[in-house]
Amino acid sequence: MGIHALPCLHFEQQISKPLPKSTPINPQTLGEHIRKKRMELKLFQKDVAAIFNVSEDCITYWENNRNEPQIQYYPPIFGFLGYCPFKLDKSTFAGKIKAYRYLNGLTQKRFAKLMNVDPATVSRWEDGKGGGVKKNEIDAVLSSCSIVVKQDLTKGLNSD
């Protein structure tokens, strides 16, 4: 006489498949951040290429650090990642400019045109040099802007 299976005992376990070994553990470059997020979301490079409206080769080059994304792609990349992987120190004038440019996908030249200054001036300001009345005006404008930088806190980056 055998014992019938106990109907009240039901065991179910869900095991998630580990990420591939090629997944960056501590991404350092923008391309590595993109690759890590893509792998976490189980997307193909062609899927990410469609999100950013670029070629699949572009994504391959970014992820393999053969090429850097142009700044115009930074806003959608940050949206895809859910954070900004760059350290942007908004406590300085140079940091405010860089944060504003990165979050809005602006080159120094386009930012300069928006602010009605020479691109070389913007470059000097980002290097922590130069001053003048225009600098004070732009600093006031940038200080009044809400520059929200959600950064990956697991990397110990500061937004202020």
Description:
- This protein is 47% helix and 0% strand.
- The longest helix has 12 residues, at 93-104.
- Among the domains are: 30-69; 93-155, 434 Repressor (Amino-terminal Domain) (Orthogonal Bundle), CATH 1.10.260.
- It is an all-alpha fold.
Descriptors:
160 residues; mainly alpha; 434 Repressor (Amino-terminal Domain); 8 helices; disordered C terminus
Structural class: mainly alpha
Give me the count of strands. 0
pLDDT averaged over residues: 84
CATH C-level of the domain at 93-155: Mainly Alpha
Oligomer: single chain
Please bin the fraction of helical residues: 40-55%
The sequence of SSEs as H and E is: HHHHHHHH
Largest sheet: none
| Unreliable spans | 153-160
Secondary-structure arrangement, i.e. CATH architecture of the domain at 93-155: Orthogonal Bundle
| Percentage of residues in DSSP E strands | under 5%
C-alpha geometry? elongated
Total of DSSP H or I helical runs spanning 4+ residues? 8
Reported by name, the CATH topology of the domain at 93-155 is 434 Repressor (Amino-terminal Domain)
Rg is: 23 Å
Cα distance spanning the termini = 74 Å
